[in-house]
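Support reply, case 0932

Customer input (verbatim):
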Amino acid sequence: MSILTKICVVLVLFVSVMASGAFLRLISVERSWKQSYINQLERADVANLAAAESKIAMRKVLAELAKAQDVGRDSQAALASAADAHAAALAKEAEATAQAKGDIIAIKASLTELSKNLETAQEMQKLLASEKTALAKSLVTANTAARELKKESDDASVQIRRLENMLKHYALLIKDLRAEIIVLQQTKTATVADADAADATPAPPAQAITGRITAVDSGVASINIGRARGIKDKMVLKVFRNGEFVSHLRIDLVRPDSAAGIILDKKLDVMQGDEVATSLK
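Our regenerated output:
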């Protein structure tokens, strides 16, 4: 039941009560006409008063009704405003929801792209790990090759020093040979005559020539016997130590009392003091 209906019901009940009061007074009219007239006047006054009160009550009711209508209109306006605000809020919420959906779609796309990028990065990481392994192997190979090259370089340096020492030794030998050549040229005539006389005399049986190593340097050894003891160029001597074979020594430089040559067929390291001897032919 609405507010307007309730107001109308109250108004009808009020009018009915007032009218019933007047009606009750009318039925109790005295028999006296004068009294009846007075009573009628009184009743008329009462009726007029009741009518006036009824009008006042009606005006109050109408005022209340108008006020209620105003309140209803205000309520309707407030409800309409609230409905509009709610609709606007719903519209904004729908817009925000649509924006959120768009953001979610963009985030999903970004996640998909990130997943692809992650897979690509993982593949690149695997490739880099493979390349790192290959580089490590190459580095090991390079280090091995470098060590081998260093070893070869060291060996070459040793050989170079050995050759330098041999060159120095041969330079000294050449110097001595030149001096000996001069001496030989001066005694050539006498030597030839002595040689002719020696050829005419039968040669004694060959005997072993023995001596000792006086110095060893870079594969070259010197001995304490020379031309005076029968040592000749390109002669091969045997080197012994305590009766055990050590190596061969090929004579490349002969002096009157010493000689020098290259160590060959080395079984042991040749040392100063080792014995040398020729082979019988």
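We compared this against your earlier run and they match. Two observations from our side: The first strand starts at residue 210 and ends at 217. The CA atoms of residues 223 and 235 lie 13 Å apart. Please reopen the case if you see a mismatch on your end.
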